[in-house]
Amino acid sequence: MNWEPKRPVAEEEIAAYERDGVVLLSGILDLELVERLAAEIDAMNDNPVGQTIDFTGLGMAMAGIKKTGNWSSSDRNWSEVQELGDRVLLDSKVAVRGENRGHYMSATDTWKHNAFISELTLNSPVPKIAAALMRSSKIYIYGDQILVKPPFTMERTAWHQDLGYDHIQGRQVCGVRIPTTVETPEMGQVEYWRGSHASGKVYKVNYFISDSTDDDIGEPVPKILGHESDYEIIVYAPKPGDVIVHHLGTLHGAGGNASPTATRRAITIRYGGDDATYKFRRFAPPQDTVSPLLHDGDRLDGDPERFPRAEI
What we know:
The protein is about 15% helix and about 20% strand. It has 5 helices and 13 strands.
């Protein structure tokens, strides 16, 4: 397995990332590495690690019926917030209902529990790619998120921005998304609002499969769904070996998976660079990223166990 990038990041790709807040890097990872990642994700889907949320189960559950995870604090339950059952964003192109519907799964902090993903985040081509795109001399792991949409997953991913979900701030903050399959329009490709990172706004945290929010701090997320022609939207069709890197301030969303056979699975690894600092956000989800050692504005290297420095 090749643990180096298959090619360097080009200067025009860095310029595109800086301008657009997102860029596709084609053929930069070894295929054996991606195949191993796919196998690890499938294994974790059967035997969950980290914090796992079944978004489909959440969406199907009305208030108080079934608890599927926590949000910002122990008294704020996903299944009890604003009765999301009738507010979930379902993709009209996914017609199958009932027992055959796919379950939209999320797992975070898997790098702390899975040896391969730990190596992937800390000692692989991935942090090198992040460092090159952000023009950073140091790279710190913030966290990871695995998202899996099996065939006939109806739930959309609401338009959102990662920054409000993360206790981090700065210009050099990014997410490196590694798809494990060829992603087609039928599978609900991720869409990005080009240049939306440049405003510097931090948007309200929503419930990921719903526009509902109890965030009273952030900016309202624009009504992009159904009004895509009013925005400059970028959509990629990545394949194994490609990565998509977005600034944590870039707004993005995705459809459901109408494919009868193909699962859309990917990991996004989030990094901070030279200028990244800690920022506690009251409405961020309860990942293990609330530091008892850091205050707002402190460098991430002040808590090296929680935010270790990656090898570049």
